[in-house]
Design brief:
Layout: E1 2-6, H1 11-22, E2 26-31, H2 35-38, E3 47-49, H3 58-64, E4 69-72, H4 86-107, E5 111-117, E6 125-128, E7 132-134, H5 141-145, E8 161-163, H6 176-195, E9 198-204, E10 206-208, H7 221-230, E11 236-237, E12 244-245, E13 247-249, H8 250-266, E14 271-277, E15 283-284, H9 285-295, E16 303-304, H10 321-327, H11 335-342
Parallel strand pairs: 1-2, 1-4, 2-3, 4-5, 5-9, 9-14, 10-13, 11-16
Antiparallel strand pairs: 6-7, 6-8, 12-15
Helix pairs in contact: 1-8, 4-6, 7-9, 9-11
Length: 349
Amino acid sequence: MRVLLTGAAGFIGTAIRDRLAQAGHEVVGVDLMLDSAHGSTTPPDGVHRIDVRDAADATWTGLLRGTDVVCHQAALVGAGVRVGDLPAYASHNDLGTAALLAAMHEAGVERLVLASSMVVYGEGRYTCPEHGDQVPPPRDVAALEAGDFENHCPACGRALGWDLVGEDARLDPRSSYAASKLAQEHYASSWVRQAGAGAVALRYHNVYGPGMPRDTPYSGVAAMFRSSLERGERPQVYEDGGQARDFVHVDDVARANVLAIEQVAAERASRFAAYNVCSGTPVTILDVARRVAAGSASGLGPEVTGGFRPGDVRHVVASPELARRELGFTAAVDPDTGLADFATAPLRA
């Protein structure tokens, strides 16, 4: 099978490219080689340096010819916390995806696997022992300053507990990046209906592992904790460290993509589906810092600062069940082992 892979030189794209090749598939890799992501404009062997926003040009037409599935990983990532970031996210992520889908249609390519993200959910799922599922209002800054970091039940005021987020949860993006990832899903879903095509969106949770970039907007919190330890500093944990998340290893993310690619290629039905890609083993941010610290030789433990960022969500933890049932995907790397190993895994500069 011939797979065109965008973002093929990135952290996740590289892992997918390797796994596709190991499975015997022909991989056509493309990547814009943004300096903010790679620190170099020279693509690795076998990867074409080309902009997905130019997908209507003749070069793209040649690359798409004969392609069975496009695996679209290319995106501008990071929180996108400044209003001034909006045009860049809209350009690379929204326009890039729209241009790619139009070019795929012209080339007769009808199967897509799209990298989406947990950020489309915004806050996770919350429950009150008395009043059931609740949608909490934004956390009050005065409460955060006083050290109250939990969301509270609108009916009784007690702290809400978290529950697993399924793919049918409400979507409420909270940043430029999150809005652009949801837009990518909407473009893909519209393309499916208009073109009679098939697409799968994989909503990654917190991805970590070897080859992760250090000290860039593309770095995750696990990489930031590791960088602090390497500087001889204690990892700084915001709030009280009790924020619940799911951390999934990049090898598992790559395997989920191959499963989705093979499934969507085999289907003839026109449909759009979204799946959480997660470990299924929730951890707190404080536990992440502790596990990375335990795997290092620093002897340093994390420092809980009580600091906060008003736009951050408190808890978002995924349900792995739909991906297990429909994709046959179950994570193989447990965070207990994976995060400790990550402390000494090779990173990219």
